[in-house]
Amino acid sequence: MPDALLQKERNRFVGFSFATAQLLLELDESNRIVYAAGASFQIAESANQLLGRPIDSIVAERDVGFLGHILQRYREGRPGQMVRVALKRDGKPAQDFLVGGCIVETTPGALYLGLVPALGVARALAGSASKLADAAAMQAAAEGDPSLTLYASRALAELSAADPDLTNRITQDIHAYLRSVSLGGEYVTDLAPGRYGFLRAAGVSDGEIEQSVATILTQADLEPAGQLFNIRFDSAELNSEDAARALAYTIEKFARSEPTEFTLRSVQEAVAEMIGNSVSLMQSARTVLTEGALEVAFQKVVEMRTGETHHFEALSRFSGIESVADFIRFMEDSGIVQDLDLLVVQKVFEQLVEMGQSGWRPKVAVNLSGRSIQGDIFRGRLLQLGQTHADLRSQMLFELTETSSITAIDSTAQFLNKLASCGHAICLDDVGAGSTSLQMLRAMPANFIKLDGSVVHGASRPGGDRTLFKALVDLARGKGAELIAEQIETEADARFCAQAGARFGQGWLFGKASPEAIKQRDKSKPIDIGGNWGGGHTLR
């Protein structure tokens, strides 16, 4: 080809490139930048300043491993896709760019990249099972196939208990690889040690994934075998919203399962079973919510020194549900728990109205899931219910559960303060169970802190460890909150907890939960505190 024609074709190629990209890079075989043209976007003073630098040197640390896998795919001529990569900038936060690449047969060893700033387009990283499920449902609606893949490594799951640091490093390597074969390089979630979920990019085979992950595991001297399977989700019986919720439940259940349960054959059967259970539970949930098919039982919370009932806790009871625990977990995992929480609040308000007509004005604590309370729509509807029954607000306490699911800590604390300003008392539930972080306890306003039964029994029984109990007593004192000890079964439990600093108790010693319990105005037997715990002083 004559030089003039060659120059014309080269200029045309560059023109086409700049039509879609604003920075062009050429990498040599070692991924060092040997050509740069276009705007530098403060990655360097100018495009020329990038010459001679390894591509890794301009990539934000979180994306280095991911980009390495992407570049390898480009070099191997595998199906390519534009992916989002964060690049470092001088003295400024990293900037996301959309990156595409290709090789040209006439220039062996060279890799060509086109970059464009990803302005105004938020990252779609699937940071949770629910986000991954939402993305799968959207893809299913658009293309008919969610391409949702789950992967389990038994060896990595077992390593997590023995060597967390090594597990974290291997997990990061596997995550980076799976991002490179996920849709848009964005949709992959670490579900649990050794377990992953991702939306697969087009053209990526099972064999490629299994071999690549096996290589990472082998390099870490771990057993390379793993289990990989794809979910083909038939949502014909569900609308798109319910389909996403059922998928979220399925992914969560996979994350909780033991890796040893997932052989190649039983995995497929388990998926079918989980999907079937999801459909069944979804139908049950709809019945509960549309027909109000639940019963509210009440259990006393007693001031142990006097035997006086301070308030009742409202507990949901369902008919026709084989496993209430699985049903509640499904409601939480799928997001329907918001509707359930509001339904219980409404029913309790109605019962308080009825009680008031007979001259009885008991206080009732209603559970609000941490998964519910972060939603703006839920918050608005809850406030509306309170406004409708403004004269009953002082009788309605809110007990925050599932605090481990709370990510919006500041806004949640602000909303709880708003509820408190309306006259509602606030209680933090299951404290000490391991699911509530110290940061959460310090941030959330609370009039009451409820100690998990495991803490109570672990400290009150002979030879028990009382360190955690004492720490939580000190924490409650610092917040100005009263302690409620749950699962009080014996007078010995009650006596210990009262001596140690818990003013209130809840458990079978004072009465079991029942729909009729709220009508009972009688006192419980006062607890004879007697001597002090700890050999010298009472911790309250």
How would you characterize this protein structure?
The longest helix has 28 residues. The protein is built from 17 helices and 17 strands. The chain has 3 domains: 115 residues, Beta-Lactamase (2-Layer Sandwich); 155 residues, Alpha-Beta Plaits; 228 residues, Alpha-Beta Barrel (TIM Barrel), CATH 3.20.20.450. It has an 8-stranded mixed beta barrel, surrounded by 5 helices. 39% of the residues are buried. 43% of the residues lie in helices and 19% in strands. Strand 7 and strand 8 form a beta hairpin. The chain is elongated, with a radius of gyration of 29 Å. It has 540 residues and is of the alpha/beta class.
Name its key features:
disordered C terminus, 3 domains, 540 residues, Beta-Lactamase, Alpha-Beta Plaits, five-stranded antiparallel β-sheet, 17 helices, TIM Barrel, elongated, alpha/beta
Quick overview:
By secondary structure, the protein is of the alpha/beta class. It is built from 17 helices and 17 strands.
Reconstruct the topology from this structure.
Blueprint: H1 3-20, E1 23-27, E2 33-38, H2 61-75, E3 83-89, E4 92-102, E5 111-117, H3 129-143, E6 148-152, H4 154-162, H5 164-180, E7 188-192, E8 195-199, H6 206-219, E9 227-231, H7 240-256, H8 264-291, E10 294-303, E11 309-318, H9 324-334, H10 337-357, E12 364-369, H11 370-373, H12 376-388, E13 396-401, H13 409-421, E14 426-431, H14 438-443, E15 448-451, H15 453-460, H16 467-479, E16 482-485, H17 491-500, E17 504-505
Parallel strand pairs: 11-12, 12-13, 13-14, 14-15, 15-16, 16-17
Antiparallel strand pairs: 1-2, 1-5, 3-4, 4-5, 6-8, 6-9, 7-8, 10-11, 10-17
Helix pairs in contact: 2-5, 3-7, 4-5, 5-6, 7-8, 10-12
